[in-house]
Each structure stands twice: as structure tokens, then as C-alpha cells.
Amino acid sequence: MVKTNSGSMEDSSTDFEEKQYIVFSAGNQDFGVEIMQTREIINMSELTDMPNSPDFIKGIVNLRGEIVPIVDLEKRLMKNDTSLSADEGRIIVVSINENLVGMQVNQVEGIIRLDTSKIGQAPDITTSVRSNFIKGVGKLEERLLIILDLVNVLTAEEVEQIEELDTE
């Protein structure tokens, strides 16, 4: 409680922040990512194989003159070894260390607004998703939404490998 100039008491816990999240599916799970982490969402297009690229790169696409490596986010997030085919899904384009990277997902459901007060910590017992990618768990009326930090999907070493792709 906060005392105002008029002497009345007000509850200061109502100062919550609402953020927008892109909701998408990878595997059989729904995820959300803060919209400010993304550049754009594009339809899956034909990938070009990149010889000698790291195994987490599915291929590359030409996005308005810029070569963008595509990561299979389902394979990256899930501990099981599932993978989308090269022509399935959508691509969420993010900027990691000033490099554009596409994250291939099953489908994008849309954009939601979520109050930060409705985002809790993920339990330490997560088993199907690698926990270092998880920012929290959003509590929606009808379901829970795993909130990801797409910048942490790749390790610093993997980002370096992507940077090397640009210079070759």
C-alpha cells in the first residue's frame, strides 16, 4: 500500500506491464515469444542446403537480398529427435548479435497481450524442453503457454558458426 498526498491508501501492486507475444507451436506444444524479439514472420519457402553447415541449420533462404540461416526450432527445443520437413511451417525471423536467423515452427497462431503478472517461473523439473530457453510460463484462461527467449536458443559458439557462414 502507498499513501497518497490526500492521505488515502492505494494499492501499488496494480502497476503491471502488458506485453505482446507471438504464439506458435513446435511439436505438440504451444510457445510464446515476446514480439520485440522478432523481426518478422514469413511463409516457409524453399531452403537451399548449405554444405558444411552446422547440423542445427536446416538450410538458408534469401530474404530480400539477405541470406538467412534457418534453424529447426522443434528439433532445437525438444529433447526428442523430431524434425519438420523442409517445406512445412512458418519462419520467425529474429536478430541474434546483429545476425538474422530464421526459426522454423509448425504454425503461428497469432499475437496475444499478456500481463507480466500472469507470467510465472518455470518449474525446475522441465524435461521435454531444454530449460535454458524458457523465460517463464504464461497463465492464460484456457491453457499454459511456455514463454521462450529466442536469443538463448543458440549458444555463443553456434552464433559464431552462423557468423562464419556469412563470411564464406
Describe the structure.
The strands form three sheets. A six-stranded mixed β-sheet has the order 10-3-4-13-12-11. The chain has a five-stranded mixed β-sheet with strand order 5-8-9-7-6. The chain has a two-stranded antiparallel sheet with strand order 1-2. It starts with a strand and ends with a helix. Strand 8 and strand 9 form a beta hairpin. It contains two helices and 13 strands. The protein is globular and about 50 Å long. Helices cover 10% and strands 45% of the residues. By secondary structure, it is mainly β. The chain has helices spanning 73-77, 156-167; strands spanning 2-3, 9-10, 18-26, 29-34, 38-43, 57-63, 66-72, 90-96, 99-105, 107-115, 119-120, 134-139, 144-148. It has a single domain (16-167), classed as OB fold (Dihydrolipoamide Acetyltransferase, E2P) (Beta Barrel).
User: Architecture, CATH level 2?
Assistant: Beta Barrel
Total strands: the figure is: 13
Task: Please give the CATH class.
Answer: Mainly Beta
Number of helical elements? 2
